[in-house]
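TASK: fixed-backbone design
INPUT:
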């Protein structure tokens, strides 16, 4: 195994380990505090600093990786997540909400910093392993990493629900914290210091100086992920427990299966897209078409859910269809940012892009709790549709690849 491939395997393994605990932690916090009687808006507030500090971390984290290397940002993320898990275990269920909510928000802020340091480091590492002229190969590697990550996070949802059901709140957090410390030590001693470290050091102000393509893609990303989280973060789990009567393990298992399938579709996205693009790498046109498809899927789900169908059947089927369409869309976005990223400035470009991702998640999380409390799942679905329409409008501005002779011939045959 080459050193580059070995380093990629270590980075990916560390990222998988982190995302397993990240998914589990989200499910544990959501279900535990819902059981304690927290409202949907209060549940949303528990995650606000998690998303807000993701915005800050991605901005600064890309610059730090540019100067000090991806190893530093990766191991920092792993260690901070372990600290967050151990700290949260000291929560006292007897505390009033005026104390418990700020405490959990603070811990979630630490976890948000950890998540985005780890995520940015892992995604950027691919840029340094694939030659610049091998776009289709880059798409495949990005899709595999992104898809596998989401499958692992989905498994984390199941692990979180199962641990909460069997081991309880505090023990669950300690089990995950100890596991992460072991991963941290392995990564610290196994990865070379210079991985991803740029030859030329960019000044801090470089984080606000992005190219046009990256600005457009990042704007589209805000609304794409906001559209997902408006109904996914708080509304769906609360709806399943409060309206459908599911227990913790059932909700955790369902969310896990959904995200695992979502991740599998992401990993398979290059095969799906290859048929549409004639073997060429995806471009702005691809992102636009997928955003429009996703808008139609969400609109159809909203109509079906409010036309007398069994709500359990409508939500379950709708979630899977939406998840498949969203997975391909997200996979193309994840490829485009790596493709657009500029050499030594790659970490800063990717960090800025995932800052936009975190901003979308923050907005979606807040709206998920607020809209659900005001008008139930219907308001959340309508909010998602509006965000997807905006995503499609922004995606019109993304650049398209030059049409190759092979593509031109294929288009003539179809016409």
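OUTPUT:
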């Amino acid at each position: 195994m080459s050193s580059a491939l070995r380093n990629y395997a270590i980075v990916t393994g560390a990222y998988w380990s982190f995302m397993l605990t990240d998914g589990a932690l989200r499910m544990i916090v959501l279900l535990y505090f819902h059981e304690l009687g927290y409202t949907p808006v209060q549940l949303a507030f528990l995650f606000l600093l998690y998303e807000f500090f993701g915005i800050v971390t991605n901005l600064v984290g890309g610059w730090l990786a540019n100067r000090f290397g991806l190893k530093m940002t990766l191991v920092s993320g792993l260690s901070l997540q372990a600290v967050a898990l151990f700290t949260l275990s000291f929560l006292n269920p007897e505390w009033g909400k005026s104390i418990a909510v700020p405490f959990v928000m603070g811990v979630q802020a630490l976890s948000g910093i950890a998540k985005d340091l780890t995520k940015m480091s892992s995604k950027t590492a691919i840029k340094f392993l694939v030659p610049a002229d091998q776009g289709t190969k880059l798409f495949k590697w990005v899709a595999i990493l992104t898809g596998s990550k989401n499958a692992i996070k989905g498994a984390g949802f199941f692990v979180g629900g199962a641990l909460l059901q069997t081991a309880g709140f505090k023990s669950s957090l300690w089990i995950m914290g100890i596991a992460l410390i072991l991963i941290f030590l392995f990564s610290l001693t196994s990865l070379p210091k210079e991985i991803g470290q740029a030859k030329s050091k960019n000044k801090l102000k470089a984080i606000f100086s992005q190219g046009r393509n990256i600005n457009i893609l990042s704007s589209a990303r805000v609304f794409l992920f906001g559209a997902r989280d408006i109904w996914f973060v708080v509304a769906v789990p609360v709806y399943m427990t409060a309206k459908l009567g599911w227990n913790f393990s059932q909700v955790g298992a369902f969310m896990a299966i959904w995200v695992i399938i979502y991740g599998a579709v992401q990993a398979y996205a290059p095969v799906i897209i290859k048929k549409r693009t004639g073997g060429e790498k995806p471009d702005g046109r691809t992102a636009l078409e997928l955003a429009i498809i996703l808008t139609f899927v969400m609109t159809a789900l909203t109509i079906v859910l409010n036309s007398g169908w069994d709500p359990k059947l409508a939500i379950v089927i709708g979630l899977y269809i939406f998840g498949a369409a969203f997975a391909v869309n997200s996979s193309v976005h994840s490829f485009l940012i790596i493709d657009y990223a500029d050499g030594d400035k790659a970490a800063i470009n990717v960090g800025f892009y995932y800052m936009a991702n975190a901003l979308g998640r923050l907005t979606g999380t807040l709206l998920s709790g607020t809209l659900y409390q005001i008008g139930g799942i219907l308001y959340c679905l309508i909010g998602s549709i509006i965000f997807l329409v905006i995503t499609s409008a922004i995606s019109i501005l993304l650049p398209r690849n030059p049409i190759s002779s092979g593509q031109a011939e294929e288009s003539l045959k179809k016409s």
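COMMENT: The chain has a mean pLDDT of 79.
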